[in-house]
Amino acid sequence: MTTWKFTCPDCGHDEIEEVLDGVVMSQVLEVDLLDDGGILIRNHDEEEPEIHDGFTARFQCANCGYILKLAGEQVINNYDDLETWIQNRRFVKALSESNTKLVIPGVGTYSGNKGKNGPNNGRTEHDSD
Fold it and tell me: Where are the domains of the chain?
């Protein structure tokens, strides 16, 4: 298995964050009264909270908040589109490290290590800022 490492196009950070919207979370809490009169509240048995409802609003860089988008500025909000975005990034990286020339009608010419020419400045239709 080959591991691919995300690199944020803006800040270079290496973690993708999934942002959920409309989420309802629940967890069982334990409340302890301390001898000094204080209160300690914690998760019961250190269990993870349960997530109910909600949906993925977007994927973004965990450091700077750069939002991952497909062509046409479509925000990526599902795992299929995230996989497409990652595959396109891997393809462009592999192409840029080779001496291969690729011509995509209506998009441009991509010439490996020799530089990139075309209307999208070397980006595929799924590679956006």
Answer: 16-117
